[in-house]
Amino acid sequence: MDLGLAATGAGVAAAVSAAAWAVRGKSAQVLAPSVWRGDPARPVIALSFDDGPSESTPALLEILARHKAPATFFMCGKNVRRLKSIAKDVVPAGHQIGNHTDTHPRLDFHSPQFIHDEIARAQSTIYGATGVTPQWFRPPYGVRWFGLRGAQEKLRLTSVMWTAIGHDWRWKGPQVAGYMIRRARNGAIFCLHDGRGLTEDPDIRSTLDAVEYFVPKLQDQGYHFETLSEILCWDKSQPKRSFHG
After folding, report:
1. 187: phi > 0 → left, psi -120 to 50 → alpha, else beta; which?
2. Whole-model pTM?
3. pLDDT cut 90: percent of the chain above it
4. Which amino acids are annotated catalytic?
5. Which terminus, N or C, of the chain has the lesser number of Cβ atoms within 10 Å?
Protein backbone atom coordinates (compact mmCIF):
# COMPACT_ATOMS: atom_id res chain seq x y z
CA MET A 1 0.00 0.00 0.00
CA ASP A 2 1.17 3.49 -0.83
CA LEU A 3 2.04 5.11 2.51
CA GLY A 4 1.03 8.53 1.22
CA LEU A 5 -2.44 7.29 0.25
CA ALA A 6 -2.79 5.50 3.57
CA ALA A 7 -1.88 8.64 5.46
CA THR A 8 -4.33 10.67 3.37
CA GLY A 9 -7.09 8.12 4.01
CA ALA A 10 -6.40 8.16 7.73
CA GLY A 11 -6.50 11.94 7.73
CA VAL A 12 -9.84 12.01 5.92
CA ALA A 13 -11.29 9.44 8.32
CA ALA A 14 -10.11 11.47 11.30
CA ALA A 15 -11.62 14.64 9.85
CA VAL A 16 -14.96 12.93 9.22
CA SER A 17 -14.97 11.52 12.74
CA ALA A 18 -14.20 14.95 14.23
CA ALA A 19 -16.96 16.57 12.18
CA ALA A 20 -19.48 13.92 13.24
CA TRP A 21 -18.54 14.47 16.89
CA ALA A 22 -18.94 18.25 16.52
CA VAL A 23 -22.43 17.78 15.06
CA ARG A 24 -23.78 15.07 17.37
CA GLY A 25 -21.30 14.48 20.20
CA LYS A 26 -23.13 15.09 23.46
CA SER A 27 -20.15 16.86 25.04
CA ALA A 28 -19.17 18.82 21.90
CA GLN A 29 -18.92 22.62 22.15
CA VAL A 30 -17.64 23.32 18.62
CA LEU A 31 -20.83 24.55 16.96
CA ALA A 32 -22.60 26.02 19.99
CA PRO A 33 -22.38 26.08 23.79
CA SER A 34 -23.92 22.84 25.04
CA VAL A 35 -24.35 20.84 28.24
CA TRP A 36 -25.18 17.18 28.81
CA ARG A 37 -25.01 16.56 32.54
CA GLY A 38 -25.22 18.29 35.90
CA ASP A 39 -23.19 18.12 39.10
CA PRO A 40 -21.90 14.53 39.59
CA ALA A 41 -21.64 15.15 43.33
CA ARG A 42 -25.41 15.43 43.82
CA PRO A 43 -27.93 12.53 43.62
CA VAL A 44 -30.22 14.40 41.24
CA ILE A 45 -31.59 13.64 37.77
CA ALA A 46 -33.22 15.99 35.27
CA LEU A 47 -36.09 14.48 33.35
CA SER A 48 -36.65 16.06 29.94
CA PHE A 49 -39.27 15.38 27.30
CA ASP A 50 -38.99 16.35 23.63
CA ASP A 51 -41.46 16.84 20.75
CA GLY A 52 -44.53 17.98 22.73
CA PRO A 53 -46.96 19.07 23.61
CA SER A 54 -49.22 16.26 22.49
CA GLU A 55 -52.67 15.04 23.37
CA SER A 56 -51.00 12.64 25.84
CA THR A 57 -48.96 15.28 27.68
CA PRO A 58 -51.71 15.68 30.34
CA ALA A 59 -51.40 11.98 31.19
CA LEU A 60 -47.66 12.43 31.64
CA LEU A 61 -48.23 15.49 33.83
CA GLU A 62 -50.51 13.39 36.05
CA ILE A 63 -47.82 10.74 36.50
CA LEU A 64 -45.16 13.33 37.32
CA ALA A 65 -47.49 15.05 39.80
CA ARG A 66 -48.23 11.78 41.56
CA HIS A 67 -44.52 11.16 42.07
CA LYS A 68 -43.67 14.84 42.67
CA ALA A 69 -41.09 14.77 39.90
CA PRO A 70 -40.50 18.08 38.06
CA ALA A 71 -39.27 17.93 34.48
CA THR A 72 -38.34 20.09 31.50
CA PHE A 73 -40.46 19.95 28.34
CA PHE A 74 -38.74 20.83 25.05
CA MET A 75 -41.64 21.99 22.90
CA CYS A 76 -42.06 22.36 19.15
CA GLY A 77 -43.69 25.62 18.13
CA LYS A 78 -46.09 23.97 15.69
CA ASN A 79 -47.33 21.60 18.40
CA VAL A 80 -47.74 24.51 20.80
CA ARG A 81 -49.92 26.37 18.29
CA ARG A 82 -52.04 23.24 17.86
CA LEU A 83 -52.35 22.53 21.60
CA LYS A 84 -51.98 25.89 23.27
CA SER A 85 -54.03 25.01 26.36
CA ILE A 86 -51.94 21.91 27.07
CA ALA A 87 -48.69 23.86 26.67
CA LYS A 88 -50.06 26.45 29.06
CA ASP A 89 -50.63 23.84 31.78
CA VAL A 90 -46.99 22.74 31.99
CA VAL A 91 -45.43 25.53 34.06
CA PRO A 92 -48.24 25.81 36.66
CA ALA A 93 -47.79 22.07 37.20
CA GLY A 94 -44.22 22.71 38.41
CA HIS A 95 -42.24 22.11 35.24
CA GLN A 96 -39.97 24.05 32.91
CA ILE A 97 -40.26 24.69 29.17
CA GLY A 98 -37.44 24.51 26.63
CA ASN A 99 -37.25 25.21 22.88
CA HIS A 100 -37.18 22.30 20.39
CA THR A 101 -37.50 24.37 17.16
CA ASP A 102 -40.71 25.21 15.34
CA THR A 103 -41.15 22.27 12.95
CA HIS A 104 -38.64 19.69 14.26
CA PRO A 105 -36.17 19.62 11.33
CA ARG A 106 -32.65 18.27 11.38
CA LEU A 107 -30.52 21.40 11.40
CA ASP A 108 -27.58 20.03 9.41
CA PHE A 109 -27.04 21.42 5.90
CA HIS A 110 -29.38 24.35 6.58
CA SER A 111 -28.42 28.00 6.46
CA PRO A 112 -27.80 30.10 9.58
CA GLN A 113 -30.93 32.10 8.69
CA PHE A 114 -33.05 28.94 8.53
CA ILE A 115 -31.71 27.77 11.89
CA HIS A 116 -32.33 31.15 13.51
CA ASP A 117 -35.86 31.41 12.13
CA GLU A 118 -36.81 27.90 13.27
CA ILE A 119 -35.69 28.59 16.82
CA ALA A 120 -36.95 32.17 16.95
CA ARG A 121 -40.44 31.25 15.78
CA ALA A 122 -40.67 28.52 18.42
CA GLN A 123 -39.40 30.96 21.04
CA SER A 124 -42.08 33.47 20.09
CA THR A 125 -44.83 30.85 19.96
CA ILE A 126 -43.92 29.41 23.35
CA TYR A 127 -43.86 32.84 24.93
CA GLY A 128 -47.19 33.77 23.38
CA ALA A 129 -48.88 30.61 24.63
CA THR A 130 -47.30 30.26 28.07
CA GLY A 131 -45.75 33.60 29.02
CA VAL A 132 -42.39 31.81 29.37
CA THR A 133 -39.23 32.63 27.42
CA PRO A 134 -37.13 29.43 27.28
CA GLN A 135 -33.45 29.55 28.19
CA TRP A 136 -32.66 25.97 27.13
CA PHE A 137 -32.68 24.58 23.60
CA ARG A 138 -32.50 21.00 22.38
CA PRO A 139 -31.74 20.47 18.70
CA PRO A 140 -33.94 17.83 17.04
CA TYR A 141 -32.14 14.50 16.75
CA GLY A 142 -29.27 16.03 18.73
CA VAL A 143 -27.92 17.58 15.51
CA ARG A 144 -26.12 20.93 15.70
CA TRP A 145 -24.82 22.94 12.75
CA PHE A 146 -23.02 26.08 11.64
CA GLY A 147 -25.12 29.10 12.55
CA LEU A 148 -26.49 27.60 15.75
CA ARG A 149 -24.00 29.45 17.92
CA GLY A 150 -25.12 32.80 16.55
CA ALA A 151 -28.80 31.92 16.92
CA GLN A 152 -28.30 30.82 20.50
CA GLU A 153 -26.39 33.97 21.37
CA LYS A 154 -29.04 36.20 19.82
CA LEU A 155 -31.90 34.35 21.51
CA ARG A 156 -30.02 33.78 24.79
CA LEU A 157 -30.28 30.00 24.66
CA THR A 158 -27.96 27.15 25.62
CA SER A 159 -28.14 23.73 23.98
CA VAL A 160 -28.88 20.77 26.20
CA MET A 161 -28.00 17.26 25.09
CA TRP A 162 -28.44 14.27 27.42
CA THR A 163 -26.66 11.74 29.56
CA ALA A 164 -29.07 8.98 28.47
CA ILE A 165 -31.83 8.85 25.86
CA GLY A 166 -34.71 6.43 26.35
CA HIS A 167 -35.41 5.20 22.79
CA ASP A 168 -39.06 5.43 23.80
CA TRP A 169 -40.16 6.01 20.20
CA ARG A 170 -39.20 2.41 19.33
CA TRP A 171 -38.91 0.41 22.57
CA LYS A 172 -41.67 -0.84 24.86
CA GLY A 173 -42.12 0.69 28.30
CA PRO A 174 -40.36 -2.03 30.36
CA GLN A 175 -37.27 -1.93 28.11
CA VAL A 176 -37.14 1.86 28.30
CA ALA A 177 -37.53 1.80 32.08
CA GLY A 178 -34.80 -0.78 32.58
CA TYR A 179 -32.43 1.14 30.34
CA MET A 180 -32.96 4.40 32.20
CA ILE A 181 -32.53 2.76 35.60
CA ARG A 182 -29.23 1.25 34.52
CA ARG A 183 -28.00 4.64 33.33
CA ALA A 184 -29.00 6.62 36.38
CA ARG A 185 -26.07 8.68 37.67
CA ASN A 186 -25.65 11.74 39.84
CA GLY A 187 -26.37 14.77 37.68
CA ALA A 188 -27.80 12.75 34.78
CA ILE A 189 -30.02 14.37 32.18
CA PHE A 190 -32.60 11.92 30.81
CA CYS A 191 -34.16 12.50 27.39
CA LEU A 192 -37.59 11.01 26.64
CA HIS A 193 -40.51 12.14 24.47
CA ASP A 194 -44.08 13.27 25.10
CA GLY A 195 -44.66 13.54 21.36
CA ARG A 196 -43.47 11.97 18.16
CA GLY A 197 -42.23 14.85 16.05
CA LEU A 198 -45.26 16.72 14.67
CA THR A 199 -47.57 13.67 14.66
CA GLU A 200 -51.07 14.45 15.89
CA ASP A 201 -52.33 12.35 18.81
CA PRO A 202 -49.18 10.17 18.95
CA ASP A 203 -49.02 6.90 20.85
CA ILE A 204 -46.64 7.53 23.77
CA ARG A 205 -47.70 4.61 25.94
CA SER A 206 -44.12 3.36 26.10
CA THR A 207 -43.06 6.70 27.60
CA LEU A 208 -45.92 6.79 30.10
CA ASP A 209 -45.35 3.19 31.20
CA ALA A 210 -41.60 3.72 31.55
CA VAL A 211 -41.91 6.92 33.59
CA GLU A 212 -44.55 5.38 35.86
CA TYR A 213 -42.12 2.56 36.64
CA PHE A 214 -38.62 4.03 36.79
CA VAL A 215 -39.30 7.34 38.58
CA PRO A 216 -40.36 5.80 41.91
CA LYS A 217 -37.67 3.12 41.58
CA LEU A 218 -34.96 5.76 41.30
CA GLN A 219 -36.50 7.78 44.13
CA ASP A 220 -36.27 4.65 46.29
CA GLN A 221 -32.57 4.48 45.37
CA GLY A 222 -32.06 7.98 46.78
CA TYR A 223 -32.30 10.09 43.63
CA HIS A 224 -34.55 13.11 43.35
CA PHE A 225 -35.65 15.00 40.28
CA GLU A 226 -35.07 18.62 39.29
CA THR A 227 -35.66 20.86 36.30
CA LEU A 228 -32.71 21.66 34.06
CA SER A 229 -32.27 25.11 35.56
CA GLU A 230 -32.06 23.57 39.00
CA ILE A 231 -29.65 20.81 38.07
CA LEU A 232 -27.42 23.03 35.91
CA CYS A 233 -27.59 26.33 37.78
CA TRP A 234 -27.92 25.14 41.34
CA ASP A 235 -27.07 27.81 43.88
CA LYS A 236 -26.76 26.71 47.50
CA SER A 237 -27.64 30.23 48.62
CA GLN A 238 -31.09 30.02 47.01
CA PRO A 239 -34.07 28.24 48.58
CA LYS A 240 -35.21 25.08 46.83
CA ARG A 241 -38.30 25.42 44.67
CA SER A 242 -41.27 23.41 45.91
CA PHE A 243 -42.97 21.13 43.40
CA HIS A 244 -46.61 21.93 42.68
CA GLY A 245 -48.17 18.53 42.26
Report:
1. left
2. 0.90
3. 82
4. 50, 193
5. N
